[in-house]
Amino acid sequence: MLAVRLPVLATACAGLFALATGLAFFYAPTDADQGLSQRIFYFHVPLALTSYACLGWGAWKALRYLRTRDERSDLESYVAIHQGVIFGALTLLTGSIWARISWGVWWSWNEDQLVLFLVLFLFYCAYFMLRFSVEAGAARANMCAVYALFGAVLIPVSFLAIRLSKRFIHPVVFNSHGPQMTGAQFLTFCVCLVAMLTLFATLYAIELAGKRLDVSLRELRELLST
Amino acid sequence: MSQSERYTAAAYLVVFVAVLVYVVIIGSKLQRLQREVEQLVELVRENRGDG
Predict the structure, then answer these.
(1) What is the pLDDT of residues B9-21, one digit of tens each?
(2) Residues whose CB is less than 8 angstroms from the CB of residue A14 and which lie 6 or more positions away in sequence, other chains included
(3) What is the pLDDT of residues A120-136, one digit of tens each?
(4) A159-195 burial, b for 16+ CB within 10 Å, e for fewer?
(5) Are the beta carbons of B22 and A35 separated by less than 8 Å?
(6) Which of A38, A48, A70, A187 has an alpha carbon within 20 to 30 A of A27's alpha carbon?
(7) What's the pTM value of the predicted model, to 2 decimals?
(8) What's the gap in Å between the CA of A118 and the closest CA on chain B?
(9) Probe site for chain B from A79, A208, A224, A225 (most B CB atoms < 10 A)
(10) What is the value of ipTM here, to two decimals?
(11) B47–A97 C-beta distance less than 8 A
């Protein structure tokens, strides 16, 4: 199944990324306020949303582990959180670059939404410190699953912070009246979001396959050495 | 190139480079796993030879 699915996913991902980049630069109209730099939005926001999706998926798999005690769920949770941290780091990097152009600073500690996303990112970075400080086994899987679930609470808080913040320097593009952008911009955004989510699915499948192979090889080596 | 163009290009480049680096890292890990498989095959052959 994976042998069929992975090449299809990878091809779809590459195609979607080519389409997304083309749309972002050649189809979407230039923003009247921010000019060319607004096009960073088409990667920055999908990266953030995909990061939330990765961490949410990791929390879901953590819950599945606590219910079923299936080691595979623990591994899937770990891989999803790993992906979430990578996408989170890219969100912070692209956001900083965009902030530099728009606000003149790389970072602002006064902005709740920036700080909350950073807190979420650092919380899940600490997940790996916890995981690799404990011997592999049921105890480690339990601790990591509980930790991942606690972190899941931060995801909606971080997401809503953009809307609850009183300062509104960080743009709010989607509100109760719908997306505040033209049809072409919204289409470009949707394609970019699908491309990012497909990238997550592809990298998740690749990393999970590698990790499962690693676990099987360790077991095989132990069996052969006894 | 204006400053806006440079920074926009940098933002996109960061994403592409990060994905490329990740793929290279995964590729090197898979190569290590491939070497481990070959070592285990050798181990099995030795065990069969001893047996």
Answers:
(1) 899 999 999 999 9
(2) none
(3) 999 999 999 999 999 98
(4) bebbeebeeeebeeeeeeeeeebeeebbebbebbbbb
(5) no
(6) A48
(7) 0.88
(8) 18
(9) A224
(10) 0.81
(11) no
pLDDT digit string (tens) for chain A, length 226 residues: 555 688 888 999 999 999 999 999 899 888 878 788 888 899 999 999 999 999 999 999 999 999 999 999 999 999 999 999 999 999 999 999 999 988 888 998 888 888 889 999 999 999 999 999 999 899 999 999 999 999 998 888 877 776 665 555 566 666 666 667 778 888 999 999 999 999 999 999 999 999 999 989 988 888 887 7
- Distance of residue B15 Cα from the nearest chain A Cα, in angstroms: 7
Check: CB of residue A98 under 8 Å from CB of residue A45: no
- Residue of chain A nearest B13, judged by CA positions: A94
Residue B36 with chain A: CB contacts under 8 Å: 217, 221
Residue A186's H or E segment, with its range, is helix A183-225
Residue A190 vs residues A155, A185, A198: alpha-carbon distances, Å: 21, 9, 12
Q: Which residue has the tokens 């083309």?
A: A22
Q: In this structure, which long-range contacts are made by residues A160-167, counting pairs with CB atoms below 8 Å and at least 24 apart in sequence?
A: A161/A112, A161/A113, A161/A116, A161/A117, A162/A113, A164/A112, A165/A111, A165/A112, A165/A113, A167/A110, A167/A111, A167/A112
